[in-house]
Design goal:
427 residues; alpha/beta; Rossmann fold; eight-stranded mixed sheet
Length: 427
Amino acid sequence: MRGGGGAIFGVAALVTSRTPEHAIATPPRPAYRTWRTVARKAGSRRIEVATRPGVFADGDEDAAAQLLARFVTVREGDACVVLGSGNGLAAAALPAGVTLHCADRHVANVEATRRTLALHGREGATVAHAHGVASPGAPDDGDALRLADASVDAVLVRVPHEKAALLPLVLDAHRVLRDGGRCWLAGGNHEGIRPAVSLLETCFGGVATAGQGGGARVVVATKRGAALPDDPALRTPWHDRAAFREVPVHVRDEAFVAYTRPGVFSWDHLDEATALLAESLRVERGARVLDLGCGAGVLGVVASRLAGVAATCVDADAEALRCARRTLAGAAVAEARVLASDAAEAVLDEHFDVVVTNPPFHHGKATALDVPRQFIADAHAVLARGGWLQLVANRTLPYEQALRDVFGDHAVVVESPRFKVLAARKR
C-alpha cells in the first residue's frame, strides 16, 4: 500500500451515515495536547497540578488522591514512594524534604506528575513509567522504578481498577518498606476499596482508616517484620516481573501466543473486538503499519504477517509495552518497534500506509471519548496519502461523526451483534 495505497475497501463502500441520536453535542474540551494548571483540594489546602485530556481525573476531582494528599503524614528526610501517581497531586502534597519516587503505568500520567512536581520545585524526584517497583536485579525491560528491599519509609498506593493489578503493588510496598514503615492506600467505594483494604490487612496485619470523604477512603498499615504471612490471597505469579499469562490466539488460520499481565486490556483472553478486527484486517504486502494502542500486540502480529514487514506498535501503558514486546518476539516478528506513546505522539513525524486500532474509551468506569477522538485525529496525521485507518469499536460508540469530521467519510467493513469495524481513507 506504499505510495498512495490501494482502494482496498472500494470507494463504493465509503458511506456517510447519520450521527447517532445519543451523540449529543458537548461543550468544547481543551485541545488534547494542551497542558494547563488547575488547583485541586486537599483539605484546607489547594495544590496546583498539571493536566490535560488523557490524564487520569482530568476535569474531575479524584477523591482518593485528595485523601492521600490530605491525610498522609511523613517526616522531613523520609524516603517515599507514590504508586499510581496520576496527575501528581499526592506526591506534590508531601513535604519538600522527602526523597520522592513516583511511578505510573500511563505515559500521560507520568508527564503530568513530572510537570506537577516541577510546579512545586521538585524536579529532583524520580518519576518512572512503570507499574510497581522492580528489584535492582530485575529484568531491564522498560522504564522501571528500582528500589532495594527495606529501603523506604512510606509507600502511597492509589488503588487501580484492575483487582489483579493491585496485589503486585501491595507486595512491592511490603518489600521496599523498612520495618516500621507505613503503606497508605486510597480508592473509591466504587473502585473496590473494601477488598483492597482486606488485601492490605492480609499482607500487613492491622489496618487503620486515616480519612474518608467524597465516596473514597484512605487507610494505613505498618510493616512489622520482613516475612509475609503464609496466606493464599498473597500468592501470585505476577509479582515476578518475568511472569506472563499465555493467551492462545487463533486468527486467520494462524496460531500464536499473546503474553499479558494484570491490568493490560483483556489480559486473560482474546477479546471479541480485537478478534473481529484481526479477521477482517486488510493489509497489502510491504505496507507500513502502525498498531495504535497495541495492548498485548495481537493486531501487531497479524498486521506484520500480512505485510511481510514488522509493524510499529505504540501504547501508553507500561505493562502493555512489555507484553507486546514479548508477544511479537514469541511470534517471530523480527525488528518490530514497540514504543511508549500517548495516542500516536511518539510517531507524529512518521508516515504509515495502514493504522489499525481498538481504541480505549474508558475513563475509570465511565465512557470518555477524548482518547478515541485523538486516536482518529492522530491516525489521519500519520497516514500517507491514500492510507487507511481500520478501527473496531462497540456498536453503540459514535465514532462515525469523528471519522467524518477528520477523514470526510468512512466505510463500514463488518458488523457483529456487539461490534463494528470501520475504515477511513486519507484523501
